[in-house]
Structure formats: structure tokens, C-alpha cells
Amino acid sequence: QVQLVESGGGLVQAGGSLRLSCATSGRSFSNYNMGWFRQAPGKERESVGAIRWSDGTTLYADSVKGRFTISRDNAKNTVYLQMNSLKPEDTAVYYCAASTIMTMSPRRYGYWGQGTQVTVSS
Q1: 88-109 burial, b for 16+ CB within 10 Å, e for fewer?
Q2: C-alpha separations of 85 from 12, 23, 30, 38, 89 in Å
Q3: Which of 16, 33, 104, 122 could anchor a disulfide with 12, C-beta 3.0 to 4.6 Å?
Q4: Edge-to-edge strand order for the sheet containing 18-25?
């Protein structure tokens, strides 16, 4: 059973930090690319960024560049999204996903987690 499970969401004040985790199981994702996405109420799902598992190469959306960092821990089969300098507009449900190619398009991701809520207050 292949699973991606997000955790670490919650309520944080503007300017604060939060780290999301995505625990993987059921298979090795060493040859995959892991993406982080978010969806706010009434809006389309958008890419936050992605990481190539094999070498750690990353991509980031302009809206989060310099504030968010994606990383992975091979021993724990887990990918992370470190979020700093959070803004109210970062409020959304955050999802992790896996793709066979390096892309920020959600259409190319075949495995998805259930999502975790992040709320940033002002």
C-alpha cells in the first residue's frame, strides 16, 4: 500500500515558521520527484515547489522563494517543507505528491497525500 501522509500543519502568526512533513511508505521514492502543493478556499491548487529525491535539486514558486525550503531524509523516507516568514496569504491546505518527472504541474503527479491545514494569522 503506497501512502503519503502529511503532518505538521497548524495555526501560526504572521512572520512565524512551521515545518511540514510528508512520510512515505509502500515503496521507495528514490527515483521520484516530490512536490508540495497548496490550495486555498475558492482557488486552484498551486505548486509550492518540488525536489528531486536522488540529488536534492529543488524548484520553488516565486511566491515562496527565499522563505520556504524543501528537503528530504533518506533514512526516514520523509520529505519536508520548512516555511519561514509566513504570511496570511500562505493559508491553505498543503499537499505532498510524487511524480516520475521533475515538474510543478499537479497534473503530472500520480501519488497524493491527504493534506494538512496551515493557517497564518495576522
Answers
A1: eebbbbbbbbbbeebebebeeb
A2: 10, 24, 30, 17, 11
A3: 16
A4: 3-7, 18-25, 78-83, 68-73
Backbone angles phi, psi at 108, to 5 degrees: -95, 5
Which of helix, strand or coil describes residue 57? coil
Distances (CA, A) of 44 to 1, 23, 38, 41, 92: 28, 24, 9, 8, 11
Strand partners, 5: 23
Q: Which residues contact 73 (CB under 8 A, 6 or more apart)?
A: 79, 80
pLDDT in tens, 5-30: 999 999 999 999 999 999 999 999 99
Query: Do the bridges between strand 18-25 and strand 3-7 make them parallel or antiparallel, or are there none, so unpaired?
Result: antiparallel
Q: What is the largest CA-CA distance in the chain?
A: 40
The amino acid present at 15, given as its one-letter code, is G
Report the phi/psi class of residue 37: left, alpha or beta, with left for phi > 0 and alpha for psi in -120 to 50.
beta
